[in-house]
Design a protein that fits this description.
Catalyzes the decarboxylation of four acetate groups of uroporphyrinogen-III to yield coproporphyrinogen-III. This protein has 350 residues and is α/β, with parallel strands linked by helices. The chain has one domain (7-343): TIM Barrel (Alpha-Beta Barrel), CATH 3.20.20. The chain is 47% helix and 13% strand. It contains 15 helices and nine strands. It has helices spanning 9-14, 35-43, 47-52, 54-68, 107-112, 118-121, 123-136, 149-158, 166-174, 176-199, 217-238, 255-258, 274-281, 300-314, 333-344, and strands at 72-74, 90-93, 97-100, 141-147, 204-209, 244-248, 265-268, 286-291, 319-323. The strands form two sheets. It has a seven-stranded parallel sheet. Strand 8, helix 14 (300-314) and strand 9 (319-323) form a beta-alpha-beta unit. Helix 14 crosses helix 15 (333-344). It is globular. The mean pLDDT is 96. Bound molecules: coproporphyrinogen III (CP3). Residues 27-32, 47, 74, 76, 78-79, 92, 94-98, 145, 161, 208, 210, 249, 326 line the site of coproporphyrinogen III.
Length: 350
């Protein structure tokens, strides 16, 4: 057997090697649409328990692996998980998402934050990633993930999810000095956290800047992009071989800017036609995506057509097949199974 056969498909595609079919995984592939997850949630009602008790988080991460054998197995965790390790206490509430107990609004609060020491703050991450690597071997790629500085700052400042981002935008457009200090501190700790995930076994890491699409392109260049760059630069300095993926939700107006972030792969959401994304980005930028998660409510034939359409438009190089955002909790598991089965049986003409 050649060397390449021991390197899993997704990792090979992420590195830019030519592969026989696009690798496939699904954002939020572990979670509420799975009965196995809902059953386990009865036993462990707190999200922090489910994601921070190693045995439970390992089990949840592996539920979709056992059910569908995706080409990528993502760590079950959350983007806010490292925040308590910097002095930002939080909880994750059912149906609401993250809640920050004392939202960061003042200079003093920013001064009191401390750099993340993942080995002491997040020892469970080592156990989870190690176990995932051991379990999937070379049959799948283990993905780690983090939140980007702007998106984590949005939670830290707003105190919870928001529709308008009024508080952080008030800070950004009236007294941006405090916000820039916060973003910078977050960037340093996120870089440390990505390195730690890689050292613990993550083979590819995705950074979610979920709320950066709420910024105008001009403000994306001020509050999101420089800090994405900082994180990627710091990680590449020590871990140049690990592919890094960037996701921004609502990124249609930002694609060309995202391509300057230093990410190896860009996640494309479904508001952009994949053929347009390829045209706009050129053929040297690797892409991931980009089916509307709602497609999985359609018939099998419809799902199949949309997979084929996306794969055709993405071409036969540098594409990781995925939805354009997380799978929706109401999605029938049977359709998720069909999505993976269809994707794994594709033969892309070379
Ligand atoms: O892909 C995977 O399987 C890993 C799972 C994962 C979770 N959170 C688990 C989770 C990932 C990749 C995340 C990242 C995350 N968390 C993001 C970035 C991705 C994105 O959607 O843009 C964001 C913005 C968050 C913050 C957050 N945490 C939200 C918005 C929610 C959902 C609130 C709700 O209940 O609708 C959470 C909670 C959360 N994180 C859930 C899961 C499965 C749902 C709660 C539960 O299952 O009990």
């Amino acid at each position: 057997m050649g060397v390449s056969s021991t390197v899993p498909l997704l990792l090979r595609a992420a590195r830019g090697e030519k592969v026989d079919r696009p690798p496939v995984w699904m954002m939020r592939q572990a979670g509420r649409y799975m009965k196995a997850y809902r059953d386990l949630r009865e036993k462990y009602p707190s999200f922090r328990e489910r994601s921070e008790i190693p045995e439970v988080a390992i089990e949840v991460s592996l539920q979709p692996w056992r059910a569908f054998q995706p080409d990528g197995v993502i760590l079950f965790s959350d983007i806010v998980t490292p925040l308590p390790g910097m002095g930002i206490d939080m909880d994750i509430k059912e149906g609401k998402g993250p809640i920050i107990f004392s939202p960061i609004r003042t200079q003093q609060q920013v001064d009191e934050l401390h750099p993340l020491d993942p080995e002491t703050a997040l020892p469970f991450i080592r156990q989870i990633l190690g176990a995932l690597r051991q379990e999937v071997g070379s049959a799948s790629t283990v993905l780690g993930f983090v939140g980007a500085p702007w998106t984590l700052a949005a939670y830290a400042v707003e105190g919870k999810g928001s529709k308008t981002y009024s508080i952080i935008k008030n800070m950004a457009f009236s007294d941006s000095n405090i916000l820039h200090q916060l973003l910078d501190k977050l960037a340093e700790s996120i870089a440390v956290y990505i390195r730690y995930q890689i050292d613990c076994g993550a083979q590819v890491v995705q950074m979610f800047d979920s709320w950066a699409g709420q910024l105008s392109p001009q403000d994306y260049d001020i509050f999101a992009l420089p800090y994405q760059k900082k994180v990627f630069e710091l990680v590449k300095r020590t871990h140049p071989q690990t592919p890094l993926i960037l996701l921004v939700t609502g990124s249609a107006g930002l694609l060309e800017r995202m391509a300057t972030s230093g990410a190896d792969i860009l996640t494309i959401d479904w508001t952009v036609d994949m053929a347009d994304a390829r045209r706009r980005l050129g053929n040297n930028v690797k892409v991931q995506g980009n089916l509307d998660p709602g497609v999985l409510f359609g018939s099998k034939q419809f799902i199949r057509e949309r997979i084929l359409d996306t794969v055709r438009k993405a071409g036969n190089w540098g594409h990781i097949l995925n939805l354009g955002h997380g799978v929706l909790p109401e999605t029938p598991e049977e359709n998720v199974a069909f999505f993976f089965e269809t994707a794994k049986n594709l033969h892309v003409p070379v």
